Amino acid sequence: MYDIHIINLLSSPERKENIANQLNAINAPFTFFPAIDGRKEAHPLFQKYDDQCSQLYRGRSLNKGQLGCYASHYLLWEKCVKKGEPIIVLEDDAIISPIEFKAFCTSAASLNPQIELIRLHKHQRRRFSSKKVTEIDKLEIHRFSKGHMGTIGYFLTPSGAKKLLEHSQHWFLPVDIFMDRFWVTNVDSYGTVPPCLSHDDSYESSIGYVQYEKRAKRHLYTKVRREGFSLSEAIKRTIHNAIFNLTKK
């Protein structure tokens, strides 16, 4: 079984206890990773953030909580590369589906190494398609036409982590949206069917989207830039998917 790392803020002991109880119930060993709290500390990794670029393409800034979230995942990617073994990353507000999650953990070693990133939570976009590529212990692994959104939980190989790090030297998107840009990172979008995790909506976001986010004034040119960026992303995603479907048959 691969190492399970749980991202947890020191200020969130209730979440820590809840996720620990769930994993202990299925006898899954784990370690806690102390999350970077961007609202309380200016981490050196924040120097990678380009606010001008974020404003240019998104019309808004990443808030400090989002920067802390990005840094936390980034540090775990480094840990994955350094150890040279796949890891499983969970956020502390995950609800674990015990049968599916344990089945994945005990069978993940049999996966094709070309599958570098597998989201373990439910896909959160409205429209997408997927295709089964393999199966492990009655869990289907699908390749998705769009990224899942969210970083509730995922499986990551060292080669995938290395690619994410190489393409993550210039931050202007939230970390989950960055991870969804498989046409940029060449880390394709896979997930389990059924999902192994879901989000516990009883907890408020520790990132603080509403309270901490600095938004730009939504002038017409800002909206046009955002729409242009979104269109460009959609075109690149479509091209990548078409090439993938042609070459991976």
- How much helical structure, as a percent, in the residues? 40-55%
Count of DSSP strands:
10
- The low-confidence parts are 208-214
SSE run: EHEHHEEHEEEEHHHEEHH
How many individual helices? 9
Radius of gyration: 18 Å
Write the layout of secondary structure elements.
Elements (H helix, E strand, L loop, with lengths): L2 E6 L4 H13 L5 E4 L16 H8 L5 H20 L3 E5 L2 E3 L1 H10 L9 E3 L10 E7 L2 E6 L8 E4 L1 H9 L8 H6 L1 H4 L4 E4 L3 E3 L9 H4 L7 H28 L2
Parallel strand pairs: 1-2, 1-3, 5-9
Antiparallel strand pairs: 3-8, 4-10, 5-8, 6-7, 7-9
Descriptive terms for the model:
41% helix, alpha/beta, 8-stranded mixed sheet, 18% strand, 249 residues, two-stranded antiparallel sheet, 10 strands, globular, single chain
Compact summary:
This protein is α/β, with parallel strands linked by helices and 249 residues long.
Can you walk through the features of this model?
The protein is α/β, with parallel strands linked by helices and 249 residues long. Helix content is 41%, strand content 18%. The protein contains nine helices and ten strands. The longest helix is centred in the last third of the chain and has 28 residues, at 220-247. It starts with a strand and ends with a helix.
